[in-house]
Amino acid sequence: MKGKATSFDIAHLAGVSQSTVSRALRDSPLVKQETIDKVKAIAHQLNYKVDKHASSLRSQQSHTLALLFFEDPTTDDSLINPFFFAMLASITQACAKQGYDLLVSFQQLSNDWHADYEDSHKADGIILLGYGDDIESQPKLAQLKQQGTRFIRWGPESDTGLSISCDNRLGGYQATSHLIERGHQRIAFVGNASKHYPEFFDRYQGYVSALLEHQLAVEPALQQDAITTEDAGYQSTKQLLQGDAEFTALFAASDLIAIGAIKAIKEAGLKVPGDIAVIGFDDIPIASYTSPALSTIRQDTKLAGEVLVTTLLSLIKEEPVESITIATNIVVRSST
Amino acid sequence: MKGKATSFDIAHLAGVSQSTVSRALRDSPLVKQETIDKVKAIAHQLNYKVDKHASSLRSQQSHTLALLFFEDPTTDDSLINPFFFAMLASITQACAKQGYDLLVSFQQLSNDWHADYEDSHKADGIILLGYGDDIESQPKLAQLKQQGTRFIRWGPESDTGLSISCDNRLGGYQATSHLIERGHQRIAFVGNASKHYPEFFDRYQGYVSALLEHQLAVEPALQQDAITTEDAGYQSTKQLLQGDAEFTALFAASDLIAIGAIKAIKEAGLKVPGDIAVIGFDDIPIASYTSPALSTIRQDTKLAGEVLVTTLLSLIKEEPVESITIATNIVVRSST
DNA sequence: CTGAAAGCGCTTACAG
DNA sequence: CTGAAAGCGCTTACAG
């Protein structure tokens, strides 16, 4: 036998038809157990594997999922938010568990970033991951949906399509409540708080609700926009520090922002948490190594990856599905 | 037009045969430029994409590469060395640049971890990434090679197959020389120094050569085994600290080990770098956030990913290829 | 420069 | 329970 074995080779050796081999390999109830056993034994012996391209072409489904990262084109493309690596690992594992392959792309959203995938039948569905301007990506999502692509997004629920998200509002509430419990009354919020960045906006909402619950005023001067980079956190905090509004604690909308904030605070000759307590969001690996170690809100990436994959699979099978929100937990370390 | 457009739809609209469409789409010199333009215009208009499964099945090549992580089964599977994420990002980008897709798998090496890939025609070649016991993985690699699978490995050159690696020996030499220049004479090495972990062993060789070059003795008591985890670094350093051999500097075979080492040193009531200077290897993102910020040896992951992909592609095209070694650079921060 | 035809290796009605 | 046959959507000799 030269080259890869085919189902015909097995059929020949097993003394059955190729159709029967195909059925036996997939445990069809139509085939006698005895035949199944015989076929499988020979297949194993020949180190035979079903040719995915042939079966995908014929059955019109590929048993692979695509993972697309979309980020603001402005961010340095060599720097991916570490948070997404945790998601990637968990998504990969969840795919493997379901017998699906995972195609990964970090490409930034080009004009037909979507087209390259499902359209070309490479994947049965798409998982979308990324922090980016939500308002800008909506039209693309709408287009995806309109052309019948199965996809699921990590992020807050929106009009377009299915999404899985952590409970950002709860997280924001937990972070802020923790700060209030520590005796802080003037708490700054660093991160975009607009519909452009709904995840941050939800975290901000949680911040506001915790403040109000404790009869504390929400001061616009204590909120400063920042996208999720260390540098943005650094710049924004510097501005906050130079402003008139005083504060003894700072809630950063992401760990990366928090790290930049701590840098700015230290540069101003202040101590964390002595002068200003800082809490982040995400619990990226770096968080436990910063000095001081960063208190933060943990998102359950392990669960998130699983839910993302299983829900997308349900969508593909046309089972009923719904957007899901996953609870967050606070991780208290030394920065608060 | 319902469903996805096929090359026949285009042929019909363009008034040419389907064969011509297929050729035109791939810029065949056999086709008149005018025809090419017309065909492409219609294809674009229909949002047509070549069906990858059909073309792969026919041409017997998939234009996708597979990335396999193999790690010691003993390590916690949720924790992947951050260093590999940088590699992953760069490999993904390099693949995209070459027009190849990337299939990712974190699965641990099962009995037929290899078979699932190339055998099933899903990928044209495999990139192997991971720290694991080298002696144990050799037989599997040999099997891969024997069955004609195209693959490339990140790691020191070995008998089995092609590999790309950073110059571990040079890195070890740079790290140790740096410590010596800082006035240290008694330098510990934490990391496995055996053929089981050839990357570490090479770093150790570099350490030895720097020592010898400066007429310093190589003391076995100053070397302590550790695999590449924070915990291993912590435990090994603790043992070293409790031993009789004194040292004022420590070269950790990886950043993760270095972080564990710093923890152990601090716990012993000693200062870094005051009492013991520490240098790591890898330059993972965390390295610049530890306290003190970690001096380390940087591996050029950007270049590594590109070389890995382009060399594998050359191998697939049966062009002449050879294993390549990439130079390392020292990054001096506050821990030395 | 273009077209008609074969065939990649499967899955799945259809017929028995 | 099994087999003969069609066909998924391409690429590529072969013929002109």
From TrEMBL, chains A, B:
The keyword Transcription applies. Residues 5-59 form the HTH lacI-type domain. SUPFAM superfamilies: lambda repressor-like DNA-binding domains (SSF47413), Periplasmic binding protein-like I (SSF53822). Gene3D superfamilies: 3.40.50.2300, lambda repressor-like DNA-binding domains. PANTHER family: ALANINE RACEMASE, LACI-RELATED TRANSCRIPTIONAL REPRESSOR. This is LacI family transcriptional regulator. GO terms for molecular function: DNA-binding transcription factor activity; transcription cis-regulatory region binding. Keywords: DNA-binding, Transcription, Transcription regulation. It comes from the Bacteria. It comes from Paraferrimonas haliotis. Pfam families: LacI, Peripla_BP_3.
